[in-house]
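Researcher: I'd like a candidate sequence for this fold, 333 residues long. If you have to choose between options at a position, lean toward the conservative one.
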């Protein structure tokens, strides 16, 4: 099954971000009428939306605002049929030093979206985007949607809080919502706060050694266009309503394996050095994430289309063309 977006009015929060910009681009190509929330700033920047083709961007109603502004969000949601909520503070290291900002954005922001949707007469479904980080280190493998939730960082704790708010609005008010939990998405437009762009930008800049944190943790990496297709399949899936649904490949790669594969693709080999600044606190490191994706594959016709290596190759090509966006010698939190 696939969702028909033709002529549908769709609101996307976090549209200026990595996944959000790809989602907006996909929705326009599918015929949707898209309102895209970008974070207001005095530079008038629209984030990664500026990276999509101008012919696509011309069809997007760009809203500059703040997910923490309840009145603004309620007005934006009015008359929309589908709402994708992606707006979130996501950098885990920064959440250690600025936890209140994560609470304000990730929990209060989600509340504003929920209230706006609850008061909408046109809403067909809200898709709330969570994260695999809410599971913490895998206690059972692969990780199903029934896995315990563990707040191993302030970031993951705020995402757990937002997920539970969403659950409460489904149970209390019958709000038509589905919670999607993507595992580690990667691809073009991802910043160096994530491990794959960090590795790639260092290698492409001619580093003499690769500066990384812990090498043994494993991740289930999903290419961004596959994640976008999964989000779109879930928002129109009736059986997903009220459910939490993982998005992942069911495969895992260690950080060291990822680094060595990227060295092969880039064509350079350098030693790997552990930078203590990049290592999470001992009890905060998530050592293993691998998705049980049986729920989404049983509910929808979604399957990942990009292999890990193919996705890495496309990511490397994009970073080569956009290396000016990166500061490889700096640690991005």
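Model: Candidate sequence:
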């Amino acid at each position: 099954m696939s969702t028909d977006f033709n002529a549908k009015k769709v609101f996307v929060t976090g549209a200026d971000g990595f996944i959000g910009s790809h989602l907006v681009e996909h929705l326009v190509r599918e015929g949707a009428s898209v309102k895209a929330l970008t974070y207001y700033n005095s530079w008038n920047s629209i984030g990664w939306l500026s990276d999509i083709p101008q012919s696509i961007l011309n069809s997007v109603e760009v809203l500059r605002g703040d997910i923490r502004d309840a009145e603004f969000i309620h007005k934006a949601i009015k008359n929309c049929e589908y709402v994708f909520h992606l707006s979130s503070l996501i950098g885990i290291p920064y959440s250690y030093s600025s936890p209140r900002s994560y609470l304000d954005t990730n929990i209060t922001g989600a509340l504003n979206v929920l209230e706006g949707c609850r008061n909408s007469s046109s809403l067909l479904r809200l898709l709330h985007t969570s994260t695999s980080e809410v599971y913490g280190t895998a206690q059972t493998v692969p990780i199903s949607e029934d896995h315990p939730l563990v707040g191993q960082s302030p970031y993951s704790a705020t995402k757990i809080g937002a997920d539970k708010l969403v659950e409460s609005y489904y149970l209390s008010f019958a709000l038509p919502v589905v919670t999607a939990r993507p595992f580690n998405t990667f691809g073009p437009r991802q910043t160096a706060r994530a491990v794959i762009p960090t590795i790639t930008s260092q290698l492409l800049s001619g580093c003499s050694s690769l500066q990384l944190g812990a090498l043994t943790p494993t991740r289930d990496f999903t290419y961004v266009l596959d994640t976008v297709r999964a989000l779109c399949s879930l928002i129109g899936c009736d059986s997903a309503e009220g459910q939490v649904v993982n998005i992942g490949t069911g495969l895992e790669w260690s950080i060291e394996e990822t680094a060595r594969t990227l060295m092969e693709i880039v064509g350079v080999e350098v030693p790997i050095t552990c930078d203590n600044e990049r290592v999470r606190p001992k009890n905060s490191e998530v050592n293993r994430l691998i998705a049980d994706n049986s729920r989404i594959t049983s509910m929808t016709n979604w399957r990942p289309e990009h292999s890990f290596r193919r996705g890495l190759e496309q990511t490397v090509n994009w970073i080569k063309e956009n290396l000016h966006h990166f500061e490889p010698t700096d640690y991005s939190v």
